[in-house]
Amino acid sequence: MIRGKIAKMLCGQKRQISFHTPGHKKRGADITELSYSDNLFSPHGVIKEAQEEIAERLGAYRTFFLTDGSTAGVHAMLFALKERGAKRVALSPYSHPSVTGGCKLLGLEPVLIPVSLKEGIPLQPAREEVEKTLQNADALLLTSPDYYGFFPDLAFARELTERENKPLVVDGAHGSHLHFSESYAGRYADMWVDGAHKSLPALTQGAAVSAKREEWAGALEEGVRLFHTSSPSYPILASVEEAFLYPRNLEIERAAEEFKREVGAIRNDDWTKVLIRYGRNAGAVEKFLESRGVYPEFNDGNYILFYLSPCTKKGELKQLSKLLKKCPAPEAGEEEAHTAEVMNEQDGAFEYIPLKEAVGRICAADAGIFPPSLPIIRKGERINESAVRHLENAVHTFGLKEGKIAVYTEKE
Q1: How many other C-beta atoms are found inside a 10 Å radius of the C-beta of residue 323?
Q2: What CA–CA distance (Å, rounded) separates 135 from 119?
Q3: Beta-bridge partner residues of 398
Q4: pLDDT tens across 63-86, in order?
Q5: pLDDT, tens digit (0-9, with 9 covering 90-100), for 245-292
Q6: What gap in Å lies between CA 336 and CA 339, rounded to an integer?
């Protein structure tokens, strides 16, 4: 069933001969800015109508579709903050790389909020730490939900930022499916990004960024134009619109919560994130599942995450449950929460050395497993054996070059 205006436009195309880009010259959805299609940078037709409809659905003043993923939206939000006078942004040290990279690109200073780690999972910032850190920043950026399925206290953050007269922005890349609920970032933030392709039925890179009120819309739109491609994909645009029009699936939401209890998953806040701790058995469990055609979202060397969506079928959960019964039992958590040390950024000469030789050295660039795109070892921290082991066993990493990690050169 086609619901969206962009998809209907694409399906209504007449037979034509292409003397325009793209070079494959095939009739179909992958077209460019033609007389009947519209222009994402200055929409006046179906894209304009679609964005307005989705903005109303999300509770936004303006919503901008993205075909470059949530990263373009994060950068556009950071640009809007800077454009309106912000110089320092309070954020978690475990924010997505697009956040820290955007700050570096725009010359914004990240003011890191101390966070706690429990059983290898970075927790959401505590109220008192958010309040304390915001005193030294001009804006607050939170992630909701995080990759492990936990929410920050957005109601408190909204109250705090209003009291301090400072903007609240949210990286909601993993929370597009929440737009039906009270937990949705758009109910609290001045600006937020939705990674529609992550938890709704949109094509990869399909996303949206929104402004709650008119005062932020202009600067955000300018940021979108600066950071977004000038050659957007119409199939992705159509899929973003369709994704936000996709009906809520309460049946699978209830089944997901029941499934979590059945398989011994970690208690978290988001029904789409089924997180199971297998510890040192995580790699073996992942290989067993993949040999039977089941592919989880990630294995971080400790946890395996199964990522659901409204398109997940109950039969698929039953099939996964049967397979997990053949795997080692999930490990019980015993580790107490402890506060992660917030490191000061430092600069200096650095070199890349083999991971095995890096224990005890000071890391010169964030490094971790992708996904979940969170640093296992942060710039400025001393590299330990646990971090090296996780990085060595990971299939996909970031911050490494050909198996080597950046460390600061030791002074003689």
Answers
A1: 14
A2: 30
A3: 368
A4: 999 999 999 999 999 999 999 999
A5: 999 999 999 999 999 999 999 999 999 999 999 998 999 999 999 999
A6: 10
